[in-house]
Amino acid sequence: MTTLLAGFALLATACGNPLAGGAEGGATGDIIIGASDVGESLLLAQIYAGALRNAGAENVKVRPPVGSREVVVKALQDKSLSVVPDYSGNLLRYFDKETEATTSQDVYAQLKQKLPAGFEVLDQAPAEDKDLLVVRKDLADTGVRTFSDLGKRCADLVMGGPGQWSTRWKDKIKTLYGCEFKEIRTTDTGGPVTVAALKSGDVQVADLFSTSSTITANGFVPLTDDKNMFPAQNIVPLVAKGTLSPQETDALNRTSAALTTDKLTELNVQYSEKKRNALDIAEDFLRDNGLLART
Prior knowledge:
Layout: H1 8-12, E1 31-34, H2 39-54, E2 60-63, H3 69-77, E3 83-87, H4 88-95, H5 104-114, E4 119-121, E5 131-135, H6 137-140, H7 147-151, E6 158-161, H8 165-177, E7 183-186, H9 192-200, E8 205-209, H10 213-217, E9 221-222, E10 235-240, H11 246-258, H12 261-273, H13 278-288
Parallel strand pairs: 1-2, 6-7, 6-8
Antiparallel strand pairs: 3-10, 4-10, 5-8, 5-9
Helix pairs in contact: 2-11, 2-13, 4-5
């Protein structure tokens, strides 16, 4: 996923695009969609905005970046935000740090139970963007194809990932797979520093995301998480209760139903590799999936 926002000011002022809208809001009755500074979040926010406008909603605005999850939750509580695209597993862990749920069905069911008053989640999409451990093909060809295979080799390998990896996953991967890496090196969160470190051999294992276009582009091999260490991370709209009408809710549910992991990956390719405008990508997705009237 790309973390560049350099061109986003153009998105908010795009002309001639049926999805274009302002980036600021606050008037009563506005639907304010939060987006982070990650390319995928921007794309999802624009897709949500287009779906809502097509359903008849007026004054739909996208506001990036919204900051940390703590900031997002507070903004939804006071309704300065109406809806944000989020990830089911991370969202559940925020509200229930002790959860052991890992599958899509269990994570979503527990998430609905654990949400505080004032929040709701709409239908989750089939699409997931979850953590993956990936290796180069030369290591995979030696028989490292699963996390269990990796566990036998960890002592000789350097792993690269985000700064919080050790606190989140170091103990878990040891418990489930007997894996203790030679070193856990902080690179970045699934971005170019991690990719470069894996390509160069500075690290032999890297944490990337399942919709990252860099995996296929570089011939990296995702390892199978055969004991489900990483929880499901389905795309799900997190909503401030009472801010959407039934028609608007239905529009987002139909949009989520059309969003698969393969489609989300291709959206990321369009944005991060082909450098297309997020508004145009969103319009094409909605139109191609029968969610936007043809003009």
